[in-house]
Amino acid sequence: MDIISRFRSYCFDVFFYVFTISLFIILWVPVIILPRWCCVLWYKTWTHIIMFSLKLIVGLDYKILGQEKLDEALKNGPVILACKHQSAWETLIFSTLVKRFVIVLKKQLTQIPGYGSYLVKLNSIVIDRSNGMKSLKSLIAQGKKSIDNNFSILIFPEGRRGAYGQPGNYQSGIGILYQELNVTVVPIALNSGKFWARRSKFKKPGCITLEFLDSIPAGLPRTEFMQILQERIESGCAKL
């Protein structure tokens, strides 16, 4: 990575934190008072600004493949979006791609001043990984509530970010959620870690690709589902 690319990445980081923190300070009280749809609109606007800034400052763009597969799956109601996790990038982009969804996230994120209040206002599915079976029961209960309210669920099956090009360790939570909610799952492959790696301080210029893959219908045995999910996502990522 050359000096200019590193400098551009550094400039983006400065912009990202100054802009985001300032905005959260200004909007902290409105976020608590205003209805959810206002928060969603603000988040989508913020995401568009961040993605434009990535392209302008870093030279990092993105493209979406298979959007028609997602649209087809959503015709029958809300789905589970099971996405490969390599970077912070995919935690941001979905507000521009899916109209009604909630994200599964760890409890620690809701404890961040200001930002945590916003995540709660978005009806995020919050789990405490340290609680074992209680966290799984909570995941199922919150998941059912979201589906009943016509919200799709975004979950990262590996539970945490992995290295680009490395197969992930898929957690049991996605299998249990699939079995209990009895809805279609849309696997998602990407290569964000190639440009925005999990432990790197720098973002590289290029083009991130995110691809919606063939849906997995409801009703399969959990073991079979887990095998299909992992094979579909990992093979999809390998092609990218």
Q: How large is the radius of gyration?
A: 18 Å
Percent of residues in β-strands: 15-25%
Give the helix proportion (percent range). Answer: 40-55%
Unreliable stretches covering 5 or more consecutive residues: none
Explain what you see.
The chain is an alpha/beta fold and 240 residues long. The protein has a single domain, classed as Glycerol-3-phosphate (1)-acyltransferase (3-Layer(aba) Sandwich). The protein contains eight helices and seven strands. It has helices spanning 3-33, 36-58, 67-74, 90-93, 115-121, 133-148, 172-181, 222-239; strands spanning 60-65, 80-83, 101-106, 125-127, 152-155, 185-190, 206-212. The protein has a seven-stranded mixed sheet with strand order 1-7-6-2-5-3-4.
SSE topology:
Layout: H1 3-33, H2 36-58, E1 60-65, H3 67-74, E2 80-83, H4 90-93, E3 101-106, H5 115-121, E4 125-127, H6 133-148, E5 152-155, H7 172-181, E6 185-190, E7 206-212, H8 222-239
Parallel strand pairs: 1-7, 2-5, 2-6, 3-4, 3-5
Antiparallel strand pairs: 6-7
Task: Describe, in short, the structure shown.
The protein is an alpha/beta fold and 240 residues long. The chain is built from eight helices and seven strands; from the N terminus they run H-H-E-H-E-H-E-H-E-H-E-H-E-E-H. Helix 5 links the parallel strand 3 (101-106) and strand 4.
